[in-house]
Design brief:
This protein is of the alpha+beta class. The strands form 5 sheets. Strands 1, 7, 8, 9, 10 and 13 form a 6-stranded mixed sheet that branches. A 3-stranded antiparallel sheet has the order 2-3-4, with no helix packed on it. α4 packs antiparallel against α5 and α6 runs parallel beside α8. The longest helix is centred in the middle third of the chain and has 21 residues. The chain is elongated, with a radius of gyration of 24 Å.
């Protein structure tokens, strides 16, 4: 598995200025205005017209702020030929009878391959299309990760030659943060649990510092809004009881610290008085909500994972 992130060549995506700059003439040819509603066409057309006027003047490129409404849409339209070429190469992993080799979320992409040779072929194909589209991959942010097979009799080796892109060698890592979630090569979620414990303490301390004079009713609303929405906890599958209990203890400490209770106070009584759910209830509710959302998905890959009981 390779994690890719695109950077700037001719200011297509400049991470230093956090702006997404579009070669307007090339982008206008890729936008399917006929498949959009009249309101959407007028709105996108008005914005692109403004950018095109700016591009025709002294500045050849003008950008949108990263995180803007149009930035992900414009970027995905621009790199669609690259995505199509990689997806149609038929090199990748067999998931539910489908060949899956690319997962893309704006400028963050993941390549999947069952062997070293197929992965290098995908990277070479990616490099070819990047040169055609005038995109440069940031080799400092590209990493590779090897997942060992489930059965030991299929295990061959965990040492492979480094992959090469743009003449640079790519590094292998044992863990990587992708879309906020920490992935480990041993498929263990303890590192991601520690990340969420840290985030819980940070959010609680910020609320205490900024709203310590507010009423308990307002503090309850703030705590439920910022501390009970735990990121991707429904995805945790393989973790140790030690990491889970540390997270549970952190939750209890944050509740008592947020509302001014003593350490020796009964946690059950505190939660009943505040009408807050227990830690186990929060995790259970997150998993139920996630399961309901996944069950409504029409994606073939998601449905296959549901059929084998992974999700």
């Amino acid at each position: 598995m390779s994690f890719l992130r695109f950077a700037a060549r001719r200011k297509l995506l400049d991470s230093r200025t956090t702006r997404l700059s579009i070669p307007c003439a090339s982008l206008l040819n890729r936008l399917p205005f006929g498949s959009r509603s009249a309101v959407t066409r007028r709105w996108i057309g008005a914005n692109l017209l403004f950018w095109y006027v700016q591009c025709s003047g002294r500045h050849q490129y003008i950008g949108t702020l990263q995180g803007g409404i149009l930035s992900p849409y414009l970027f995905t339209r621009y790199v669609r030929p690259l995505i199509s070429a990689v997806s149609q190469s038929k090199l990748g992993c067999n998931i539910g009878g489908l060949v899956v080799n690319l997962l893309a979320y704006a400028d963050d992409m993941v390549l999947l391959a069952p062997s070293w040779r197929s992965m290098q072929s995908l990277i070479t194909l990616l490099e070819l299309w990047c040169s055609k589209l005038d995109i440069l991959c940031t080799t400092k942010k590209i990493v590779c990760m090897i997942f060992k097979p489930k059965y030991k009799e299929k295990y061959v080796t965990d040492k492979f030659p480094n992959f090469v892109i743009n003449g640079c060698l790519l590094n292998f890592v044992s863990q990587f943060r992708y879309l906020g979630h920490i992935l480990s090569d041993n498929m263990n979620d303890d590192d991601d649990i520690r990340r969420e414990i840290k985030n819980l303490f940070v959010r609680t301390n910020v609320l205490i510092i900024r709203f310590y004079r507010c009423s308990r009713k307002l503090k309850l609303i703030l705590f439920k809004t910022f501390c009970l929405c735990m990121y991707d906890v429904a995805l945790w599958t393989y973790f140790s009881a030690t990491a889970y209990n540390k997270f549970k203890s952190a939750y209890n400490k944050c509740v008592k610290k947020m509302f001014g209770y003593m350490r020796r106070d009964s946690m059950t009584g505190v939660l009943l008085e505040l009408s807050l759910p227990t830690f186990d209830t929060v995790i259970h509710n997150s998993r139920i909500i996630f399961a309901n959302q996944v069950s409504m998905s029409s994606n073939n890959i998601v449905q296959w994972f549901l059929s084998i009981g992974v999700l």
